[in-house]
């Protein structure tokens, strides 16, 4: 595998970045436009997760403002159609389209309009690569089709990069995509072929050892590719594999987070690359589990971090969790039960409230149901209310499962699902999610243990506190 470093382009990036520095002092990015004949009421912007959303006015106008990073990709979604954008801090881009056929009528005007148009057209031209059926072909057919599709896609890119005034940082990231993406496909093939064809994974005919050898040869210091998804995913593969090896070799080490930290420090010697993977790990844990679970790692990282935007990002997440920390009051949210009656949190005051946030499509959520039912029986005569809150988009699917499985107790539905006030307030980024409140609707734990975990320890402790206060 040849070295992917492109020194002339890196020099161009440095010079281009210096020339753009003054223009990008303000991190605000504006995405606005007008989409006529659109049935959807909203336009939403994503980057891994939802960043911003706004309602479209009667004439189809919309405007989104958010703080962004230099040279980043975003997805603009509306009416079931998704458009890829490439934007930097300080950019402003304007979109016009007809909602009846957005992909054929869209036009961009503004910063990085060429790069964004290229990404939208690339997504349309490369539909064969995004079709999961590609991964259910035999090994020979898979390689034949995949190589043909990537060759054609890369030819389009080579023609595009010859145009004038294309961001050199965009060019080098696209080159990274064509270098690493085919290898990421190869790594995924055995798993998906097994799932799609029902073939036992260990019997799938594929040179996975060759793939792993190629992954092992990837340079780990290519910070110019940190925004190339396949590059970071391939490094994540090495980190995960080494984390498993560390846990197996050291039986005294029980924390996967600590083993992962050791793996990152062992593999990634370049500080920029090391910081990126430590940051993304802490950020993911903090968003999904809360700052309590990453306190030590967060404090250590903040002492050595040299990238201001990482610090700003983590502090922003930390501040969000502050409002739902232990001891904080909770608004008196209202839900709908299966009979259509309204139930308020205040109706349950006087005892602990253990909340399960779930959805019918969530496998891990369903897996917790037997443990939940068992826990309810154990604490039937205790001052604990067990409250399940569905964030299903499809209310009928929730009602059907509740009735079919004869799910008892407080079975409630949060209107607007993930965008409900309840979900937004508790920053529900992943499910299942469990929350424990005290007898006065104050937060005990915004990310409590699962029924299958150590929740009994917490329930017992706080039930004892309630009993002692009532004496």
Summarize the structure.
This protein has 471 residues and is of the alpha+beta class. The protein has helices at residues 7-20, 102-105, 113-125, 127-130, 139-160, 168-197, 208-216, 229-249, 256-267, 271-289, 295-304, 308-322, 363-378, 395-404, 421-425, 455-470; strands at residues 28-36, 42-47, 49-55, 61-67, 72-78, 81-87, 92-98, 107-110, 334-337, 342-344, 352-358, 384-390, 410-413, 433-437, 443-445.
What are the salient characteristics of this protein?
471 residues, alpha+beta, 16 helices, 15 strands, 47% helix
What would your notes on this structure say?
Helices cover 47% and strands 18% of the residues. It is α+β, with helices and mostly antiparallel strands and 471 residues long. Strands 10-9-13-12-11-14-15 form a seven-stranded mixed β-sheet. The protein has a four-stranded mixed β-sheet with strand order 4-1-7-8. Helix 6 packs antiparallel against helix 7, helix 6 crosses helix 8 and helix 8 (229-249) packs across helix 9. The chain is globular and about 75 Å long. The N and C termini lie far apart (73 Å). Mean pLDDT is 88; it is low at 7-24.
